[in-house]
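B., you asked whether I could sanity-check this one before it goes into the benchmark set. Here's the sequence:
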Amino acid sequence: MSDAIRDKVIAIIAEQAVLEPGDVTPEATLADLGIDSLGLVESIFAIEEAFDIQVPFNANEPDQSDFDISSVAAIIAAVEALVADQKGG
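And here's what the prediction gave me:
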């Protein structure tokens, strides 16, 4: 399941960055990819919709969020945890 989650998150981020999924690396930050705050919010909405999860993210206070957006890999890990919590709960 992790590969499917990773691939889908990368596809969503790539779409926001107007890049090919192969150009999105796990160590890249959203800033590296040229994604601004609006693109971040759109990515979060797309991730919530794709995985039917609720992302604990406050666009007004992104630093106070429990959702780690420090890198693509961190976002993937956070989505994997949310999906696992949802399936387990």
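One thing to flag: The two ends are 17 Å apart (CA to CA). Otherwise nothing jumped out at me.
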